[in-house]
């Protein structure tokens, strides 16, 4: 009989193990302990992840558990990982970008976490890098794509060109589809609602974008069975994720949930409200801005309208928000 193959994701590594139908659950636990170096842990499996019952492990046989092809998440149970910061920016190796368009406001670690007892852990904010590709990076992390910005931009561009009847000039902010598709591949161009709609169609997933300032949830892909959640703070996108321990690495996050269960949305709105209280948003209608393109640093404006006007006149896309404190 073919062996049972199981993917095991621990706090610092992921391995594939092969076991036999007649093994006991206790034998599997011992093997996982050996492979991960974690002594006391819980196991979660399935989608969304649910705790694997380890009671009577000595007598339970693996065959009936139907674990072949599954991924088991190893959740340390001794609390040794608790307390690690959850706000570090996504670490994706990229070349040094030109002047960055808006740096998202920073908040204390405590403001980025809400307990989620029913979900078995916490809902956390995963802060994206300030490189004008934050939306693409945030979504790429949901789908497990390494270095996603260029790939996802190219996929969106191709999708728009394949569906000119849907993504017409009117829909594309009065821009011809070919021109829009070319521009969105530029690493300095921001992504927004058009790109989120495309990504929902491309990947078959519902995308819920929560606006920090207004608490509004914009949903793309109402007919999809699975959802992810992004957080929009006026000029920046971050990813919302579920973790079972605050010290677990980002690659052990849960980032997809069933779309017929709104409990994650309610928790995400609670997190957004907490972030609003910490002023983790930018009012694009009233913000004071400056162009950061060399030779244009003396240009000052107020609000998104001035920014768009300046971009149309000069082609400049790098801006910073000026503090009025």
TrEMBL record:
Transmembrane segments: none annotated. Its EC number is 3.4.19.12. GO terms for molecular function: peptidase activity. It catalyses: Thiol-dependent hydrolysis of ester, thioester, amide, peptide and isopeptide bonds formed by the C-terminal Gly of ubiquitin (a 76-residue protein attached to proteins as an intracellular targeting signal). Gene3D superfamilies: 3.90.70.80, Phosphatidylinositol 3-kinase Catalytic Subunit, Chain A, domain 1. GO terms for biological process: proteolysis. It is an enzyme of class 3 (hydrolase). The keyword Ribosomal protein does not apply. InterPro entries: OTU1_Ubl (IPR048857), OTU_dom (IPR003323), Papain-like_cys_pep_sf (IPR038765). Residues 123-243 form the OTU domain. Its main location: cytoplasm. It is found in: Cytoplasm. CDD domains: OTU_OTU1. The keyword Transcription does not apply. Keywords: Cytoplasm, Hydrolase, Protease, Thiol protease, Ubl conjugation pathway. SUPFAM superfamilies: Cysteine proteinases. Hydrolase that can remove conjugated ubiquitin from proteins and may therefore play an important regulatory role at the level of protein turnover by preventing degradation. This is Ubiquitin thioesterase OTU. The lineage of its organism: Eukaryota, Fungi, Dikarya, Ascomycota, Pezizomycotina. The gene is OTU1.
């Amino acid at each position: 009989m073919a062996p049972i193959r199981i993917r095991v994701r621990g706090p610092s590594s992921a391995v594939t193990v092969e076991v036999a139908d007649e093994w006991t659950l206790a034998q599997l636990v011992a093997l996982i302990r050996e492979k991960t170096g974690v002594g006391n842990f819980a196991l979660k499996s399935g989608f969304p992840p649910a705790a694997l019952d380890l009671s009577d492990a000595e007598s339970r046989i693996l065959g009936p558990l139907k674990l072949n092809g599954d991924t088991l998440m190893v959740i340390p149970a001794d609390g040794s990982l608790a307390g690690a910061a959850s706000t570090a920016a996504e670490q994706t190796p990229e070349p040094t970008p030109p002047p960055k368009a808006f740096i998202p406001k920073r908040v204390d670690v405590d403001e980025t976490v809400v307990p989620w007892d029913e979900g078995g852990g916490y809902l956390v904010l995963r802060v994206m890098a300030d490189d004008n590709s934050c939306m693409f990076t945030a979504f790429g992390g949901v789908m497990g794509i390494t270095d996603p910005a260029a790939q996802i931009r190219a996929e969106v561009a191709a999708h728009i060109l394949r569906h000119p009847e849907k993504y017409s000039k009117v829909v594309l902010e009065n821009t011809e589809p070919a021109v829009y598709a070319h521009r969105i591949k530029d690493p300095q161009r921001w992504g927004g609602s058009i790109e989120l709609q495309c990504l929902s169609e491309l990947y078959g997933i519902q995308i819920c974008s929560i606006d920090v300032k207004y608490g509004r949830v914009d949903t793309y892909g109402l007919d999809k069975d699975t959802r992810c959640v992004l957080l929009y703070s006026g000029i920046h996108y971050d990813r919302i994720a579920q973790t079972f321990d605050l010290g677990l690495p980002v690659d052990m996050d849960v980032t997809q949930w069933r779309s017929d269960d709104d409990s994650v949305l309610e928790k995400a709105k609670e997190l957004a409200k907490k972030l609003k209280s910490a002023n983790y948003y930018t009012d694009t209608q009233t913000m004071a801005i400056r162009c950061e393109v060399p030779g244009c640093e003396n240009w000052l404006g107020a609000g998104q309208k001035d920014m768009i006007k300046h971009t149309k006149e000069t082609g400049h896309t790098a801006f910073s928000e000026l503090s009025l404190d």
